[in-house]
Amino acid sequence: MEDRVSGPELVLVFSGKRKSGKDYTTDLIQDRLGPEVCCVLRLSGPLKQQYAQEHGLDLGQLLGPGPYKERYRADMIRWGEDRRNQDPGFFCRLATSGAQQPVWVVSDARRLSDLQWFQSEFPHQTRSVRVRCSEETRAQRGWSFTPGVDDAESECGLDCGVEFDWIITNEADAPSLDQQLQPILEAAQEAVALRGDQ
């Protein structure tokens, strides 16, 4: 069933609110490590692909940042929750299918069941990372509170009850991202060295 040569050496599961900078941060990690070492896995990609397929929608626009996605977001969230209730690992398995790099960066965990799936499947490799910033910073990036979205489990599922391995503060007055990412990059380099020793 799996299309993997071997499992990952390190799985970094990122979470954070909309417009906190999760994608920017995870892309930065991949840039630093290189695509041959690190892949970015987006749980929302398979969700949006399946949703677009079943509802006859434009996948390209659902994957983008524009108003098209926002028009369907609330219904897509409900649909995704129904799928997860039936099978909590459904989207995680789709996202990881074919991943072969030693470092996996999951850019968009949204609920406890996402994190738990990775911790269950890869208990020794999984580390959790929270990206946070103020509502003011998120608003400057284009965020505004949307009822049914920003108060749903897809935005609040990891707000409490999780002890993150690392917390990244993505604010102008925080230490630089390069400085904050250093321990994560070091862990990734150690993981890559482990695979090389095997």
Description:
The chain is built from 9 helices and 5 strands. The chain has helices spanning 22-33, 44-55, 59-63, 67-86, 90-96, 112-121, 135-140, 153-156, 177-197; strands at 10-16, 38-41, 103-106, 126-132, 166-169. The protein is of the alpha/beta class. α1 (22-33) packs across α9 (177-197).
SSE layout:
Elements: E1 10-16, H1 22-33, E2 38-41, H2 44-55, H3 59-63, H4 67-86, H5 90-96, E3 103-106, H6 112-121, E4 126-132, H7 135-140, H8 153-156, E5 166-169, H9 177-197
Parallel strand pairs: 1-3, 1-4, 2-3, 4-5
Tell me the β content.
Answer: 5-15%
Give, in spatial order, the strands making up the sheet with the most strands.
2-3-1-4-5
Spans where pLDDT lies below 50 across 5 or more residues: 1-5
Q: How far is the first residue's CA from the last residue's CA?
A: 24 Å
Short description:
The protein has 198 residues and is of the alpha/beta class.
Jot down its keywords.
five-stranded parallel β-sheet, 198 residues, 5 strands, 9 helices, disordered N terminus, alpha/beta
